[in-house]
Amino acid sequence: MTLAALQPGGGGKRALAQALARMERDSESAAAQALLDEAWRQPRAQVVGITGPPGVGKSSLCAALVAAWRKAGLTVGVIAVDPSSKASGGALLGDRVRIVTDATDDGSFVRSMAARDRLGGLADQTLAAMVVMRALFDRVLIETVGVGQSETDVAGVADTVLFCVQPGSGDSLQFMKAGIVEIPHLIAVTKADIGAAAERARRDVAGALSLGGSEPRDWPLRTLAVSSRSGAGIEELMAALEAHRAHLAEEGRLAIARHRQSEGWVREALRDRYGTRGLERLAALGLDASLPAGGQPFERLRVLSTALEKPR
Question: Which residue in 249, 245, 23, 52 sits closest to 154, CA to CA?
Fold first, then answer.
C-alpha cells in the first residue's frame, strides 16, 4: 500500500477502498502503519467536518458540496459515519446511498463507516481514513452520525467544522448551548428553500450567538442559510469555507491546530489501550503524551506503546 497506488484516477478508487478496508481490519499491521506515516507527511486537503442533529440534511448538504467542488475542478473524499447495526456492527443507514455522487467519477470518493460504540459521532477508524484521504484529495468531508451534544469528536479531526441547524424544529437554540457553540467555525441553517422559517432560524441562531458570552475567537463564527435542493446559499457556503481555509493558512494557525489535534489523538489512543493507569505509568517512566514539533502521532504512539508494554 503506497499513496502513489491510491491516487484518484487510473483505478485508484478501487485500490483506496481496498486499502481502507484492510486498515479497518488491522490498523496495526506494518503496511497500514507505513501508509499512515507516508500520508501524514503529505497533507493536502482542507478537512471539513459536518455535524448536527439527525434529519437536519447533512447528507444532502455533503452531496451538494461534492457537486460544487467537483464543478470547480477539485477532488473530494467523503467519510460518512453511520449508526451501527446491533446485529452485524456494520453501517446502518449507508450514506453512500444517501450521498449521491457519480460512481464513474474518479475525482470523488465516499466511504461509509459504522460508529459502533463511539458516542462522539465518529468511528474508530475515522482518523486513519482521514489522514490517508487528506493526502489524496483537495477536500475531505467528514459527516458525523448526528446525536446532538455528544458530537464533539469531529473538532479533533477536522480543520473546519460546519454545524447544521434545521428550521422549524423548535430546538435551534438547544444546539447553541456551551459545548456545541464552541466547536463550529460556521453554522448552516439548512432547507432555506422553505422561506420564512429558515430565515427566522438563522436570526435566532445569530441572536443566540451574540448573547452567548463565549470566549473571544480569532475567527468570527458565521451563520448562513443554505438549501441543498435549490442550491441557494451553496456558493456563499463554499466562499465561507474557503475563507476559513485561508485564515488557517495565515500565521501558522493550521500547523498549530493540527499539532494540538495530534497530541489529543495520542493521549486518547493511550487511554483507550491502557486506561488512566497507563498514563500514570508513563509519567512514572518519565514520559508523557506530548508530541515534539513536527512529530508524527502514529510514530509517537508506537514508541510510547512499546515503553508501556515492556516487562516491569
Answer: 52
- C-alpha pair distances (Å), 129 with each of 2, 36, 125, 196, 211: 14, 9, 6, 40, 38
Please check whether residue 11 lies inside any domain of the structure: no
Q: Indicate the pTM of the whole model.
A: 0.88
Dihedrals φ, ψ of 54, to 5°? -60, 145
Q: Which residues pair with 109 in a beta bridge?
A: 77
Cell of 110: 465516499
Q: Please tell me whether residues 99 and 229 are part of one structural domain.
A: yes
Closest among 200, 157, 206, 158 to 181, alpha carbons compared? 206
Among the listed residues 159, 172, 237, the one whose alpha carbon sits nearest the alpha carbon of residue 209:
172
pLDDT tens sequence across 102-148: 777 889 999 988 765 544 445 567 888 999 999 999 999 999 876 55
What cell numbers appear for 28 in the block? 496495526
Residue given cell 487528506 in the structure block: 134
26 inside domain: no
